[in-house]
Amino acid sequence: MDDWLKDSDEVEASWLTVDLAIFTLKDDQLMMLLVERGLEPFLGKPAMPGGYVQKNETLREGALRELSEEAGIDGSRLHLEQLGTYGDPGRDPRGRVVTVVYLALGPDLPDPVGGTDAERALWAPVARLEDGRLGLAFDHREILTEALEEVRRKLEYTAVATAFCGETFTLTELRTVYQVIWGQTLDPSNFRRKVLNTTGFVQPTGQQRLPHTGRPAALYQRGEAWLLSPPLLRTTTSGRRDREGSGRGSGEP
To answer: Prior bond to 41 cis, omega within 30?
Structure first.
């Protein structure tokens, strides 16, 4: 190590952690996985699951381990990708802690079980987090906001909506994903037409799901395409289509 670095007053040791912004749909609600902290700082405060990266593991391995230890969930089958890196000097009162945040999505994930330094784990409605009714530790509210917008944007330009569905699904179930996450009501006929006209988005399985009442519904599975062309664009509050670019994170994980 250079001598100037060892003697510098402007450089200090930093710690590296991973955190997970995990979303699923339950009872037509968008839910986020939280843990109740069992240690200071923010004792008893809800936070995203996460922790320090061990010296012999990759970032992804650390994220999967923390998810298993703190919530009892196997993340190996989830859609998992890096959201971003957060390292503001004051984000953690213990010192300079830089965290790499992973975005994880899955269909109707099981009830979590708290462990290690998490007092308990729970699924919390995102609506309660967005309006501030449930506060979060550290800078996790800021991370939540960015994670939500990333998911909403990805629904426009990628096939990530299928990560909230099972291996097979109906177009009604897929439309529900869009409606819940965007907070918009979509016309069933228009949605069906757009999905089926988007090459490689979904493909029919040749099977049907028999409802308790009504007509059978055709089952689909995710197609070969990841990037959607044409994209399925949201309607903004002004009524115009949102035509912004997909930004970071638009490539396939």
So the answer is: yes
Output DSSP code: residue 75.
G
Instruction: Give 3-state DSSP helix, strand, coil % of the chain, rounded to 5.
Output: 30, 30, 45
**Can you read off the two tokens belonging to residue 73?**
């969930």
pTM listed for this prediction: 0.86
For every residue of 32-61, DSSP letters joined together read EEEEEE-SSSSTT-EE-SEEEPPTTS-HHH
DSSP string for 202-221: EEEEEEEE--SSS--EEEEE
Rounded-to-integer distance, Cα 228 and Cα 181, Å: 18
First to last CA, the chain: 35
The burial of 200, by beta-carbon neighbours within 10 Å (0-12 exposed, 13-18 middle, 19 or more buried), is given as middle
**pLDDT tens, residue by residue, 14-26:** 999 999 999 999 9
